[in-house]
Amino acid sequence: MDALQLDTVRISDDKTCLEILDQTLLPNTIKVVKVSRLEDIWEAIRLLRVRGAPAIGVCAGYAIALAASQIDTDDPVRFCEEFLKQKAYLASARPTAVNLFWALDRMERTMRAHLDKPVSTVKEILFTEAQAIRDEDVSISRRIGELGFALLKHGDGILTHCNAGTLATAKYGTATAPIYIARERGWSDLRVYCDETRPLLQGARLTAFELHSAGIDTTLICDNMASITMKRGLIDIIFVGCDRVARNGDTANKIGTSGVAILAKHYGIPFYVCAPSSTIDMSLETGDQIPIEERPPEEVTEMWYAQRMAPEGIRVCNPAFDVTEHTLITGIITEKGLCRPPFDRAFAELGI
Ligand code: MRU
Hints:
The protein is α/β, with parallel strands linked by helices. It has 11 helices and 14 strands.
């Protein structure tokens, strides 16, 4: 089994439900869940059955198209009102990945641009737009992969954090895309190190799973082993994904990413963020303005353990993301080009 063959999320052929690969069950069980009610799609995003910024965007596009198709009216004004209610509900599923809001806003613009047409036609157009978001995500990831591949040398050791892999996108991933491109070109001497990524283990359960299944030389390390792995000279380059990038290049990604970047600076290792341009939020001046999701304490105290591994009643802090300051980032690889500091100028030059 090659994880590149798995669909993270798709719309069923008869367009009545979403088929979501349930990532909470990986790597032990490969199961696709079918969801048609908006509440169940909201829950799938919230519980990380579908996760990773680009995949959340793709899911949101399909979800709002599906929900819109179920609105029972021919009146464009009522259709629009109902669409906006559903959009607001979906947007409340998770706060940090901007792709959720980006995809929903794009779907709203599409809806408004065609409101002079019969509602039944608008519904079809929304499905087409959602499919376009998905298809574009594949080509965007591939382009990021090609630009990232150009930074690699034979024999390189690559460190990645969390899962910015094919499972986090429609295909290829962002941080993993250079590795898949290298494999396509016949390179077999890259070594990848995956941080396990506490508390939800996206590195162990997802990145290690997908790269190992693709036959890539993959080593799993606990998050607190990144330092010694760098000190031993095993890491030549770091690729991570991102959930939202501010105008100055500050980058929110999975909790622990900023620590990796600080270590990378200490050991003089280049640290690259792989970012579809839809993840760059030019409305935010710095990373301080990025909302950070706080998740349930049980993810830290109980999840994955046979029995609870923290005292009852202990206070838990469980921020799901942190912000890596732009000064720690060597480059941000977007599908439009590789951005070097100062990032605000680089983004402007690429028309982002
Ligand atoms: O909480 P998650 O699993 O959705 O967090 C995912 C990440 O932090 C990824 O690195 C990010 O979304 C980029 S995915 C290409």
